[in-house]
Amino acid sequence: MSVRAPRSAAIEHVFSALSGWPMLLVNFLLFVAAAFTIGFAAAPGSALQFIGAALALVALLMLGGYFTLQPNQARVLILFGAYKGTVRESGFHWANPFFSRTRGSDSQKQAGTDESGPRTRLKWKAKGGLGTSLLPTKLSLRAHNFSSDALKVNDKRGNPVEIAAVVVWRVENTAQAVFDVEDYASYVEIQSESAIRSIASRYAYDQGEEHEITLRGGADEVALALKEELQVRLAKAGVIVEEARLTHLAYAPEIAPVMLRRQQAEAIIAARKIIVQNAVTMVHMALEDLDQKNVVKLDDERKAAMVSNLLVVLCGNSDASPVINTGTLYS
User: Containing domain of residue 274, as a range?
Assistant: First the structure.
């Protein structure tokens, strides 16, 4: 059985369109010539009238070739289904009026505005059939922001977490964006959410093993991993990922109270550990100073009692109540 070779990516070609101002003058002259030719025709149906009508028809067709581009905007030129190139230079241009101004799409999304900017879709409904969405051939090359909704995903340990991210992207290869995917804006949204879910499942929310990167503790590393995965996924659409970063990270509501109590317990244990370590150091210093300065001589039993009393004072949650011993040390 033969294996089909993978389809190569579409290659962008830069097309140099004519300036619209000289062509506008030519267009005007054609109208004038058509009017004079028809006006000076000797009789109806003469050759001059046919020539004038032809000039008028050419002038009318030329009106469909004008278009403007703003900075960081491009137009993909499609002639009867064949890709002819991409105009990237801003300004007033003229090109073949038969270049398509829309590109077909099977997407059933309604016209509207999304995170990638306003996108005008011309709705055409076949008689007795389903509607087909037509997308414009003009593409924005500016940076776009896509902010995902809070997604519920299981982290590396299986704990349900809520995660969201913002992705900054722009179109780099207009040919790939138009011909290699159905709708590049929708493609970015779907693949971004898929990449966010994939990244969340690779890392634990927090409290990982030693030197392990977590979602909460390794924000920069997680953002870099997310950007790299997004770039791999979106390269097919000719899209460059400028930045990707988590904007929301929390435990899912059903386990949030339990995890909060666990975090509180871990914080108390960590604080107690530091208190005990410092208290032992202080008791050791106190005993050494008493011994070196010959303030008092204590046997092992009295040292143990003093250590116990000092640790209670230093590690206790409440203030200690002093007890004055009026007898001897051993009474």
Answer: 257-315
Residue 330: inside a domain: no
Look at residue 123 and tell me whether its pLDDT is greater than 60. no
- Given a cut of 80, whether residue 187 has pLDDT beyond it is yes
Higher-pLDDT residue of 148, 304: 148
Whether 242 is in a domain gets the answer yes
How many alpha carbons fall within 13 Å on the CB side of residue 317?
Answer: 3
Average pLDDT value for the chain = 82
Residue 115 lies in a domain: no
The whole-model pTM stands at: 0.71
Task: Tell me whether residue 65 is in a domain.
Answer: yes
| 280 and 241 fall within a common domain | no
Task: Report the C-alpha gap between 46 and 30 in whole angstroms.
Answer: 19
Q: Six-digit token pair at 8?
A: 């190569």
What are the tokens at 100?
């398509």
Between CA 56 and CA 37 the distance in angstroms is: 10
